[in-house]
Amino acid sequence: MTDRMPGGRPGGTTSPAWAPSPGSRAHIPGGLRPLVRAPGEVQFGLTARGPIVSGLTTAEIGLLSRLDGRQAVAGTFRDAADAGVAAARWHELLDLLRRLEVLRVAPADDGPLPVGIEGEGPLADSVSRALRRTGLVPVPSRPGAAPAPPVEPAPVLVVLVGSPAVDPRRGDPWLAAGVPHLPVSPGGGHATVGPLVSGRRHPCLWCLDRHRSDRDAAWPTVMAQAATPAPAPFRALGAVGVLARPPASGPLGHAGVPPGSGDVVDPALADVVAGSVAAIARSLVDGHRPPPGVSVDVCLPWPRMDHRRWQVHPACDRHGAAPADTDSDPDSDPGSTDAAPPGLARRQHPVGRGRAPHLV
Q1: Residue 328: pLDDT above 80?
Q2: What is the pLDDT of residue 351?
Q3: Could you tell me what percent of the chain has a pLDDT over 90?
Q4: Which domain of life is it from (predicted)?
Q5: How far apart are CA 279 and CA 300, in angstroms?
Q6: For residue 237, what are the contacts with CB-CB under 8 A and spacing of at least 6?
Q7: Are 42 and 52 in contact (CB under 8 A)?
Q8: Which domains does the chain have, with CATH numbers?
Q9: pLDDT tens digits for 25-57?
Q10: Alpha helices (H) along the chain
């Protein structure tokens, strides 16, 4: 029997067989650690979306509580054998938890994973510190410096910091090189993170620019000014100066440097934004890509985070014949993930002895 989990992903036993790569490590995040509800039954975490698994033995519950990522997956099979749990049974249980998005499986450590930081100033520094805390290596990058692959080591992501907006031209070399890139745009008590540009099938920075131009005919003129670094007095105040000169030719001006990347940003906002960027980068490395075309708006003074979804713009020539993402319009809200969707309560996932795990 198959079903759908609260997160909207299909479960059941019809998914392809899971084969962990050599040296990979599996762990259950601390916020989802197994909590015993009744004999043979555990729940993962305390949120309304936390799954419940029943039909477990005491030995299996003990094994799950030790999945902290310090041991390779192969080592957990040895522990399972020592505890009297058959290899097939342990594999089925791990596979179930992986499909429930409780178990995180990280590839073998192949050395440091670099993340390019294109921009300067307090926000870029905060992002660098947050990335280091997640085990990634921030590497300064210059605009337009994306080399043709292969690159050793290739960045797994490039973060483009620009205030009050990121010039779309800054994404061109990374799009051409096939490197995922993430725009980060602070301005006042507000900042936007994303959307992640990870290929030509999903919206790029030019798509965002064209959507904004469709709504506001003056956007190209305004953006041409914003794409030029503000005078020093304005940067010191964290503001963007309006330049008394005609906009550059073409749809956007381009100064060749990250405009406004060194502007003053509220420290509280910088920390929230940096944490969001680090979470996206770490998830990307772990194989959990964010929904395509989704950006996150962070607002002060009361911390608030909203989602916005963007589509590929039909007139954007960066996508060729690739199909557009037509899930929703650019202003739609993909919805919060803090609670189960209406009509979907927490579901139990019994694991019967001697049969394959399945969702009911």
Answers
A1: no
A2: 54
A3: 26
A4: Bacteria
A5: 20
A6: 264
A7: yes
A8: 25-108+340-350 (3.90.930), 114-309 (3.40.50.720)
A9: 888 887 888 999 999 999 998 877 789 999 999
A10: 58-65, 73-82, 87-99, 122-133, 172-177, 205-215, 219-226, 232-236, 267-285
